[in-house]
């Protein structure tokens, strides 16, 4: 193999190495991301982060205003 | 917020409800933005099946009863319950009517009806509210004997303010005790705290009497004046 072909071979190997490192980084990034999703959604589908799964429940402060037996009576108060 | 009515609110001897066969009542509840109304036996005493059917068609909110059928008809007359969502929580509201012998209507036992429906609602909602005109005494039986109910909004009979069933923890709120000239003048307000799982963990309740000490909401006052012209 000539020097030129050896250099070309090294350049291609370097490019493959960079590509593999890039793909590996991408895989690690995805796995890391899924780990975060899983830890934030224990027992869930992991899809909630993307807004298509069941909503995470929060505590609820609810006011119920209620009437009964008004008999259809209408009147203003202060007049 | 939820705005609810526990029944006998469409009609009695009061103008303009009487002269409009309850049309003015439905219009008022539409205007005020009610979330649900239960049917009371007085509504069924004074309004026949065709008229009630017309009133239901005018309502922009669920009119509920799980135990009323037109005589000779197998299907329920209205939807038995409604599901609403607040803050990511599914809330079921079951309507109940007080048992009575009325021409043109069949009303099933409200306690048995609650026993039948509450398990169904528990599968669909984390919070279950019973909007009941069964009467305070019957509502206390339901609270004690039917597990799975968080809140009963009660109508009919003497107001008892707050009652908690020791057997189940179900809370009952009842605001109004209508007397001559006083119907529609009492409003209850319950401030409730639920945890993430929908368990009731805190409450405050207060009764308001709509006296002349309370300043009118101008838009509502204008609506009442307009209604006076419409249904006089």
- What name does CATH use for the topology of chain B? Purple Acid Phosphatase, chain A, domain 2
The radius of gyration over CA of chain A amounts to 32 Å
Helix content of chain A: 40-55%
Quote the beta fraction of chain B: 25-35%
Characterize the main sheet of chain A: none
pLDDT < 50 runs, ≥5 residues of chain B: none
Going by CATH, what is the homologous superfamily of chain B? Metallo-dependent phosphatases
SSE ordering of chain A: HE
Explain what this protein looks like in three dimensions.
The complex is a heterodimer of chains A (79) and B (232). With 79 residues, chain A is mostly helical. Chain A has a domain at 3-50. Chain A contains one helix and one strand; from the N terminus they run αβ. Chain A has one helix spanning 3-40; one strand at residues 60-67. The longest helix of chain A is centred in the first third of the chain and has 38 residues, at 3-40. Chain A is rod-shaped. Chain B has 232 residues and is an alpha/beta fold. Chain B has one domain (4-231): Purple Acid Phosphatase, chain A, domain 2 (4-Layer Sandwich). Chain B is 27% helix and 28% strand. Chain B contains six helices and 13 strands. Chain B has a six-stranded mixed beta sheet with strand order 5-6-8-9-11-10, with helices on one face. Chain B has a three-stranded parallel beta sheet with strand order 1-2-3, with no helix packed on it. In chain B, helix 1 (23-32) links the parallel strand 1 and strand 2 (36-38). In chain B, helix 1 runs antiparallel to helix 6. Chain B is globular, with a radius of gyration of 17 Å. The model of chain B has no long low-confidence stretch (mean pLDDT 95). Strand 1 of chain A pairs antiparallel with strand 12 (186-194) of chain B.
